[in-house]
Amino acid sequence: MKAWDKELRELSEAAGLSLGDREVALCCRHLELVFQWNRRMNLTRVREEEAVAKHLLDSLIPLPVLPPEGRVLDVGSGAGFPGVPLAVCRPRCRVTLLDASRKKTSFLKVAAAELGLSQVRVVHGRLEDFAAGVLEESSFESFQLITFRAVNPDPELMGLLARLATAGRGCIAYWAGARSGARDAKEAARGEALGLERLEDFHYDLPADLGRRTLIRWRRK
């Protein structure tokens, strides 16, 4: 298995991130687990040589513009990005990883245990059921940060997330990939109707010319 430690150190420093030995080791171990399990199930299509940039750096670069502590919900966690790297680098956050795939939540439970992330809980189920409180693991607490990636932010989804975000300061963060993040009047009106204020978009570049990224954020009023 490829050793990613040196690459992660160099790329994170170039991106202005300060990662300690623990953070580097755990993030790289997470990647190793992803590719080990990927032989048996479809966790990622990203190639190993691009995994540090497309998975780890893409998850970590936006951290400075996200709440530093509190309850976090990662929706559609899949292989655990950005939820697991966030939990590694923000140990004061209590992170819930939610996914509708039983196989993926099985992986996430193994990964969290392997990495010693005691502040992480893994929930199998649909967001609709989690928000309605019908899952055994549903939480009636609100979240200071809700993250999602590779999930379409349609009005129904945003309505559910708005209900789960902490009033007055809950942040919803969407890893929009290569999307421009352009605003339009309809999008703004939908956000207003849900009690969400669109914050300034955060743009960043992945290393090795792997593309420009946009993080779209809302705050619950």
Automatic annotation (TrEMBL):
Pfam families with a match to the protein in the record: GidB
S-adenosyl-L-methionine in keyword set: yes
InterPro entries per the UniProt record, alphabetical: rRNA_ssu_MeTfrase_G, SAM-dependent_MTases_sf
Annotated localization: Cytoplasm
Binding site for S-adenosyl-L-methionine: 76, 81, 99-101, 127-128, 149
GO molecular function, one term: rRNA (guanine-N7-)-methyltransferase activity
Keywords: Cytoplasm, Methyltransferase, rRNA processing, S-adenosyl-L-methionine, Transferase
EC numbers: 2.1.1.-
Enzyme class: transferase
Gene3D superfamilies given in the database record: Vaccinia Virus protein VP39
CDD domains, sorted: AdoMet_MTases (cd02440)
One GO cellular component term noted in the UniProt record for this chain: cytosol
Function per UniProt: Specifically methylates the N7 position of a guanine in 16S rRNA.
Family as reported in the entry's similarity comment: Belongs to the methyltransferase superfamily. RNA methyltransferase RsmG family.
Protein name in the entry: Ribosomal RNA small subunit methyltransferase G
Source organism per UniProt: Desulfacinum infernum DSM 9756
